[in-house]
Amino acid sequence: MAWRGCSRLELQLRRRLGRRQAWGSRGIASCIDPSVGLTEEQKEFQRVAFDFAAKEMAPHMAEWDEKEIFPVETMRKASQLGFGGIYVQPDVGGSGLSRLDTTIIFEALSTGCVSTTAYMSIHNMCAWMIDVFGSQEQRHKYCPSLCSMEKLASYCLTEPGSGSDAASLLTTAKRKGDTYVLNGSKAFISGGGDTDMYVVMCRTGGPGAKGISCLVLEKGTPGLSFGKKEKKVGWNSQPTRAVIFEDCAVPVANRLGEEGQGFNIAMKGLNGGRINIASCSLGAAHACILLARDHLKVRKQFGEFLASSQYLQFQLAEMATQLVASRLMVRNAAQALQENREDAVALCSMAKLFATDECFAICNQALQMHGGYGYLKDYAVQQFVRDIRVHQILEGTNEVMRMIVARSLLQV
């Protein structure tokens, strides 16, 4: 569903939601307003995303977390607004939006539920990989059902013994005629066991990055199984399991790109994945600043509202500054990636490093401002803290982001 000319979509959504304002955009001070600098079209789909987050996600995020519910139907509602294939081309059902547009949407959605939005960002990355690197037949076979979120996708790169050193992966795919026989396992797979398609990086050649290829597997393939559902600190609205391959026969027709191109495909996917996950951190930090501000205005200690404390005023000002700086870095990196600039990889790494670190600090400080209340699950701030902690680890740890940036500088 393309966004061009989407005014009717917005009107339909607003009729359903009434005039309720977005939970994440309520009473925003102009200095942290996420709509500043956007085009009218971008502001339009940002409003739709904020409204969806407020109505369809925020009221349920605590329950999804506590009961570990994977909210498939809610995500399918989001796909009706074009959020299932945001930067996939329109000819296969995508919205055809830019990387900058995508960060705007994920930031807004994350004010309603970080965990669910983060899974949606991974799903979008998988759909994009098929759209860009797949054949015309593959694009038209897989992308429409992914963009509608009728089918859900998982990204399978990490293994029990290869995390940051992804090029050392051991899952093998031995070619036998028109099929590959896949053996090995993947770890920490978002959606694993509940999703329908698995974009798998596997070894079809020798050691190192050049021996890796990319295959698409469908759930139900004989020999495909899953480990136990992991118990996690956060991200509880999406299941995480090991994905196990035991003599899985996968048609050669399911390979994306050429043999040996898989590592390049994986890394190009992750460049976008890094700014996507950074955008989810922005949404959490944005929501936490508003929660902290509101708490300071109503909580009294020593006969005065906390908002009158200059120390806490300074803390709030620093949080706001960190948020805006992070947002600018993410949007700058998104623009560089969209333009395929030479510095895009380093800028995406910088943005991921800076935004996930700073936004976690913002959310953690917001919890501190709530005092003991912040540690109670009745208060949303603690869930934002738990949900975004992992953003400093996945899509490449922040230590690896530093390595990428340093390598870029030293190669000059």
Question: What topology emerges from the helices and strands here?
Answer:
Blueprint: H1 7-17, H2 40-57, H3 61-67, H4 72-79, H5 99-110, H6 114-133, H7 136-147, E1 153-156, E2 172-176, E3 179-190, E4 197-203, E5 212-218, E6 224-226, E7 240-251, E8 255-256, H8 262-298, E9 300-301, E10 304-305, H9 310-338, H10 344-369, H11 380-389, H12 398-410
Parallel strand pairs: 1-4
Antiparallel strand pairs: 2-3, 3-7, 4-5, 5-8, 6-7, 9-10
A few lines on this structure:
By secondary structure, the protein is α+β, with helices and mostly antiparallel strands. It has helices at residues 7-17, 40-57, 61-67, 72-79, 99-110, 114-133, 136-147, 262-298, 310-338, 344-369, 380-389, 398-410, and strands spanning 153-156, 172-176, 179-190, 197-203, 212-218, 224-226, 240-251, 255-256, 300-301, 304-305. It contains twelve helices and ten strands.
